Amino acid sequence: MKKIETRNEFDTSIATQKTVALFSADWCGDCRYIEPHLPAIEAAHPDFNFIHIDRDQLLDLCQELAIFGIPSFVTFENGIERDRFVSKERKTEAEITAFINASRLKGQSK
């Protein structure tokens, strides 16, 4: 998963690929909980580009995108947001995988 450091890196990453963006923060316990599952999720979805954005580092971007709850998963295709997975509950590997699969189907119908 590529760590995004700047707004330009973010814009470039989502411009032409199907992308799953994870918005999180170092202090977020639920974010740390899902970290061990991310390599398997990424490996199971090679048709997506996976990026990680630290909410505190790119706060302006997160405010612009209305990313207030973390961890948040947002899918983009060709620079356009397709779907997002945000909930107050701790996310599981199965839920994240189901979200990505559902997002893949939404992208096919557009």
Lateral strand order in the biggest sheet:
1-3-2-4-5
Q: How far apart, in Å, are the first and last alpha carbons?
A: 26 Å
How many domain units? Answer: 1
Shape: globular
CATH architecture: 3-Layer(aba) Sandwich
What value does the Rg take, in angstroms? 13 Å
CATH fold annotation = Glutaredoxin
Mean pLDDT: 90
Give me the count of strands: 5
Fraction in beta strands: 25-35%
Counting DSSP H or I runs of 4 or more residues, the number of helices is 5
| Helix share, percent | 40-55%
Provide the structure class. Answer: alpha/beta
Order of helices and strands: EHEHHEHEEH
The largest sheet, given as strand count, sense and whether it forms a barrel, is: 5 strands, mixed
CATH superfamily: Glutaredoxin
What is the CATH C-level name? Alpha Beta
Structure, described:
By secondary structure, the chain is an alpha/beta fold. The protein has a single domain (2-108), classed as Glutaredoxin (3-Layer(aba) Sandwich), CATH 3.40.30. Helices cover 40% and strands 25% of the residues. The chain has a five-stranded mixed beta sheet with strand order 1-3-2-4-5, sandwiched between helices. β4 (72-77) and β5 form a beta hairpin. The chain starts with a strand and ends with a helix.
